[in-house]
Amino acid sequence: MPNTNAAKDRGGGKRKIKRVAGTAMLAVGALLLPGCAPADDVPTLTWYINPDDGGQAELAELCTSEANGSYRIETSLLPKDAAAQREQLARRLAAGDASLDIMSIDPPFVPELAEPGFLAPVPQDVAANTTKDVLEGALAGATWKDELVTVPFWANTQILWYRKSVAEAAGLDMSKPVTWDQIMEAAENEQKYLGVQGSQAESMTVWINALVESAGGQILQNPEAPADEIELGLTTPAGEAAAEIIGKIGKDNLGGPGLPTSTENDSMILFRGDKGSFMVNYPFVWPATNAAVKAGSVEQSVLDDIGWTLYPQVEAGTDTAPPLGGINLGVGSKSKNPELAYQAIECIVKPENQATYFVTNGNPPSNSAAYDDPRVEEQFPMAPTIRESLQLAAPRPQTPFYNEVSTGLQQRWTPPDAVDPQTTPQESQDFILAVLKGERLL
């Protein structure tokens, strides 16, 4: 998910998170930063980065310069696919690879790497310095067992994009929260399509989780339990509500003919077309659409017709729980320079650096203070909505067995037109539990 991608306790209130040390994850390839060749006695830190537009390499160079010879940072490029990143990092960490000084980690993989002790504990002073003003959703995704085990770097979330003309024609007041029922009805009445991601991919897990959490439930009831004792919350009113929404969009063709294979990019293209109406998607939509206008492939009138607001509510009057994505930074437990690695991380995640990374690479800050940078709202006028969304955002199921849970959901909740609130939650729950117990294969 571009990589792509609230710390709410769904029983009510905020989840308590100790902003202290813990354990956790990642690893892969190798690119030497140009122009960084200090003396041989300067410690070299390797930062395993996910693909971006060069922003992490630029931050590595900046923090190397600011270190004044204390260390230098080299970057090593991870695969593009998040699952491949997880696999390579987990294998290298399990093998005791000492080169994993700093790692860019997708939040869902944090528990799997934290549980076996693959991450060096976050020092208390680093935890205090790097979590000040961090948005609740981003903080939740950086923890395991209520302890900070990684440092939030950038955070991603989906918001509701809409065509102003369609919303107006449908009589919707977009200054107020809207529900899935409202936008489905509006799209149907106006004979338009909804932009959602219906492919059998991680994006489906993202969608299911956001719906279940927004309905007041949780896919995973006891995240710290061993595999054979895990309890799922799919056969609940929240799970049924999620299946009702996905099934209706599929069966009533509200997502368009390409829904079963629709990705984030496909949704954006559909949304920008004549049949576009509403879309749940990440902030990359804005710079991508601006670039398309400049290239002449999208009319300016389309850009002018785009509005944005928070992710739809499942139940009117109940806070939405938007998706959470992004990247956290972890230090390998076998790193020879963990103290220096955490010094470097403190530099990387400074609010001003997060703001720069946002305006240059399009990845939103995890730190609320970064949104006060005037460059941010100038380039991303929806930045206040993104910040509010990240405060409400809920992470995907946090468990060392995330791969089994996510893959099981993807296999049983696709295609969308086959999803039924009476059968899908029960069938998917039974299947995933059987996989966790070793009775079924993915």
Structure characterization notes:
With 442 residues, the chain is α/β, with parallel strands linked by helices. The protein has 2 domains: 44-156 and 324-392, D-Maltodextrin-Binding Protein, domain 2, CATH 3.40.190.10; 159-321 and 401-436, D-Maltodextrin-Binding Protein, domain 2, CATH 3.40.190. It contains 18 helices and 11 strands. A 5-stranded mixed sheet has the order 2-1-3-11-6. The protein has a 4-stranded mixed sheet with strand order 8-9-7-10, with helices on both faces. It has a two-stranded antiparallel sheet with strand order 4-5. Strand 1, helix 1 and strand 2 (72-77) form a beta-alpha-beta unit. Helix 17 runs antiparallel to helix 18 (424-436). The radius of gyration is 21 Å and the shape is globular. Mean pLDDT is 92; it is low at 1-38.
Helix and strand layout, with pairings?
Elements: E1 44-49, H1 55-66, E2 72-77, H2 82-94, E3 102-105, H3 110-114, H4 124-131, H5 136-140, E4 143-144, E5 147-148, E6 151-156, E7 159-163, H6 164-169, H7 180-189, E8 193-195, H8 202-214, H9 237-251, H10 264-272, E9 276-281, H11 285-295, H12 300-304, E10 306-309, E11 325-330, H13 338-348, H14 351-361, H15 374-379, H16 383-392, H17 402-412, H18 424-436
Parallel strand pairs: 1-2, 1-3, 8-9
Antiparallel strand pairs: 3-11, 4-5, 6-11, 7-9, 7-10
